[in-house]
Design brief:
It is a single chain. The chain is of the alpha/beta class and 275 residues long. It folds into 2 domains: 213 residues, Alpha-Beta Complex (2-enoyl-CoA Hydratase, Chain A, domain 1), CATH 3.90.226.10; 47 residues, Lyase 2-enoyl-coa Hydratase, Chain  A, domain 2. The chain has 12 helices and 10 strands. The chain has a 6-stranded mixed sheet with strand order 1-2-3-5-7-10, sandwiched between helices. Strand 2, helix 2 and strand 3 form a beta-alpha-beta unit. Helix 2 packs parallel to helix 4 and helix 10 packs antiparallel against helix 11. It is globular. This is Enoyl-CoA hydratase domain-containing protein 3, mitochondrial. Keywords: Fatty acid metabolism, Lipid metabolism, Transit peptide. One of its GO terms (biological process) is fatty acid metabolic process. May play a role in fatty acid biosynthesis and insulin sensitivity. Pfam families: ECH_1.
Length: 275
């Protein structure tokens, strides 16, 4: 099938990402289980579009990312990748473009004001594993497994490496990247790739429980804190403390900080206004 035919077929399919909002939580569901929820051009575009809309939606206080079927995400769509081998440049322009769009998607998750929680059931491989690693929190069902298998097909998972090395220790990341072996849910928890392991089939419910707890907080410290967390992580120790002190000073001047401290001192529940 030609690239143009592939694009037409992809467009004709049902929407690849579903969004449902409830209780201040936006649940985004990868909805193409027949294609193993691969990060196809259409799926990445849809997911990026939802994230852009959520970023400016003050009614959304947390996001849960999940998937239909037995595979959370198999990573890039290899059929789309191979379809461009016949291009005049052997696919170079397309590969650079698709990897750039994937990087922008992962970065959008990190930079989204609201926390994003991955709820993983089944398999998360290559860029699918990268997607999990890019989320702020992750809950895995007991049967979930994770893998960066590029070396098994002649590719090092260079771009998944970026998110993976920011989520787990360097030794664990290199083991996954160099061996391409499956990592079971309990080992993913031990490595720090996921926060919780729950019985199979309960990952979405557990992620929603975390999301509700986050949604119940004032959004001032949540949004300031998420942004600051990622910025300070790339700084020297002295710069990180200086930056964190500035952000915390800003936070202390917020109305909700005054309300929260006053509530503690007067032994009552705070009333948040998100300002």
């Amino acid at each position: 099938m030609s690239p143009a035919s592939t694009a037409r077929a992809e467009t004709a399919l049902p929407t690849p990402v579903l969004r449902v909002d409830a209780e201040g939580i936006a649940t985004l569901t990868l909805a193409r289980p027949a294609s193993r929820n691969s990060l196809s051009d259409a799926t990445m575009a849809a997911l990026s579009g939802h994230l852009a809309a959520i970023a400016g939606d003050s009614a959304v206080r947390a996001v849960v990312l999940c998937a239909e079927g037995p595979v959370f995400s198999a990573g890039h769509d290899l059929k789309e990748i191979q379809a461009h081998r016949g291009d005049a440049d052997r696919g170079q322009a397309y590969y650079a473009d698709v990897l750039g769009r994937c990087a922008a998607l992962m970065t959008a998750i990190v930079r989204l004001p609201q926390p994003v929680i991955a709820a993983v059931e089944g398999l998360a491989t290559a860029a699918g594993c990268q997607l999990v690693a890019s989320c702020d929190l992750a809950v895995a069902g007991q049967a979930a497994r994770f893998c960066t298998p590029g070396v098994n097909i002649g590719l090092f998972c260079h771009t998944p490496m970026v998110a993976l090395t920011r989520a787990v220790s360097s030794k664990h990341a290199m083991e996954m990247l160099l061996l391409g072996d499956w990592v079971e849910a309990d080992d993913a928890f031990r490595m720090g790739l996921v926060n919780r392991v729950v019985p199979e089939g309960e990952a979405i419910a557990a992620a929603l429980t975390l999301a509700r707890r986050i949604a119940a907080r004032s959004q001032v410290p949540v949004k300031l804190g998420k942004a600051a967390f990622y910025r300070q992580a790339e700084m020297t120790l002295d710069d990180a403390y200086a930056f964190a002190s500035d952000v915390m000073t800003t936070n202390m001047l917020a109305r909700d900080a005054d309300e929260g401290i006053s509530a503690v001192l007067s032994k009552r529940h705070p009333v948040w206004e998100d300002r």
